Amino acid sequence: MEMDEDELLGLFEVMSSLIEDPGWARAHPEPCTETPWPGVECEIGEDDPSIFHVTKVHIGSDIITPACKISANISDALLKLPYLKTLSIFNCFVSSPVTLSPTLFGALSSLEHLALYSNPTLSGEIPSSLAEIADLRVLSLSQNNLQGNIPKELGRLVNLEQLDLSYNNLSGEIPDEIGGMISLTVLDLSWNGLQGQVPPSLGTLQLLQKIDLGSNKLVGSIPPAIGKLSRLVLLDLSQNCINGPIPETLSGLQQLQYLIVYHNPINSRIPLFLGTLQNLTSISVSECGLTGPIPNFFSSLNTLTALSLDNNNLSGTVPPSLGSLPNSMLDQLNLSHNQLSGELQFPEEFIERLGERLDVRGNDKLCTSNKLYLNKNISIYLEIPPCLGTKENGGNGTVQEHPDNSSRYHGKISSNAAQWLNPLEVLSFIYYNFAFCWIFIL
What's the pTM? Predict the structure, then answer.
């Protein structure tokens, strides 16, 4: 068995344009048989079983270090590899500028997997000719320096399953034509400069399992059609300028595990329908301008492990049920920097288990009757004062804010609260409160 001579020479040219090894061709004269190389794979020809064809070329630091030479480039000799199914090049173009040919990849009709990622000097625009690769299933151009718009022609890739253009410098709007990628399961356009609104056409991609549009400049509201994606597992719209409220149609996302929308001007209440998404594992809605109370339904989400509600305008008390369920999997809870008030009532086991993963700082009217909160060995993120209220005021201590912006307590010292105070703390309490309130000794 042997290789076609033109195909073999084409492979030698491709490798010569990438790696700093002038003796590579001599060391691997038969890369499909007698002298294989880890980055090259071949298959027996369907028409002629006596011929090998190159079907995969992979270049990366996992194969050779350094991965590529300083002057590495993508050679037109790839056209001599007509049976190539996979081209994977990562951490290769790090010194000399490289751009993608507007015509080269469109001619690679057998290509199914194209991954050019983690190449700092790979710049220029994404060629629209990629849409001509009808059998393309994976297109990963992540962690490069690509600019310009996402070509709307890519919408013709009806067999594409994964599109990852994250961590580039892409701009413009997400093309509505992306809704034509009917086989798409993964869409990652995060960490770019994309503008405009989230296209409603995403709602037609019924096979989608992951949508990551985080860290862009997207505006407008979340399209209600997103709620039709019944297989969606991850939805990340974080760090954009997306408005609220979150549409109730998202109650259709019954497979959703990760809801990440932090740092957006949602400016509404926490939607109650989230309590129906029983597969939620992580919810992050920090810095969203959320108002109103914390609903009780979070405690019914038995698979929830992380909940971030920090840096909002939430008010009212903290539902004790968040930490009281015996089968609770909650392992990270951030309620810091809100306007929460009243007594924080979590079991000691819950406090000890979470430790520093429980953060309630920055809630001036929140207090506790549990001395465990005051144990600095547990967490520096439990910086809340002891409650000094009585049963007469509902059992919830209060913290009064004075003109000098210091926290002062008022009300009687109940026997339950006093037992956590040593004599020095009592004297300190009397000293700091003499000018503001009466002290009742029970």
Answer: 0.85
